[in-house]
Amino acid sequence: MSSLSMADLDFDPAWWYAQVHPHRYGLLGGSLLAIFFNAMARAHPDTRRTVKGIPIYIYAVAMIFQVVVFLPTAYCAWQRWAWNPEWMKEGWTTSPGWTKISPMHERKRYERLYLYALWGYMIKDMWIFRRDFLFFAHHLVCLFGILAFFAVPAGVGCFVVGATVLELGNFTFNLALLAGKDSSPDVPREIKHAFEYLYHVCMPLSNAIGAAMFAWFSQFPKLKGTVWVYCLGVAWFSLIAGREAVHLRRSVPYFRAERRRKADLARRNEEAKKIKKKL
Predict the structure, then answer these.
(1) CB-based contacts of 275: which residues, under 8 Å, 6+ apart?
(2) Are the beta carbons of 39 and 125 closer than 8 angstroms?
(3) What pTM value is reported for the model?
(4) How much of the chain, in percent, has pLDDT values that exceed 90?
(5) Would you state the pLDDT for residue 11?
(6) Helix pair angle (133-149, 109-123), 10° resolution
């Protein structure tokens, strides 16, 4: 698997097919399992109740993927190499201590499983949200990105960790949607505020870490100055920019309103104290 330069923009589709073809059954299996999880999660009528126009089961399955699938798989993949940062720089045909292996080698098992699961995670909601342009476009970009990472000459581990960091940011967004400011009146104000604050801190943090990891990724020897960096960078930073725009639209008005509420409460308390003294 050789590195591509900007001169190779007219790459051979057969070459791309050859890189992705060995993973066809894994991608199919990941898709079917994710769709099955969706079907099972929506079986109970209560799970089809909507929050912000989205059924609860969509949030539930997404959050399970984020903390039960992506995080442990990324952990196992990196821990297997004793947290060696060099693992993040490897491609599909290289591995620490090995010069050339097959992408289907046992040493790449967790990396493959991660991308299969991520593919299924994106596929499972495509039909449900086919009329939501932004959602559909977001997932379509992610799907093309996943296919690209089956052919990338280096940085597979960096993508696994970076994508996990971004998904953990999404996890806090899901928590904020389910139990934050717009949730049921039965949810205590303190809980709502805690989840909004968690999202407010963790989303920009995950975006910053994700951006920093791509900056590091772009300097790997087999990637620096290549078409991989330019094309994947546009997709990666577009996704991060969209995430941060959503974060700012939600968090900035909320915390401004909270500051006003607390200031009004403090003013009323002060006025009450003055009235009490006069009495």
Answers:
(1) none
(2) no
(3) 0.89
(4) 70
(5) 59
(6) 160
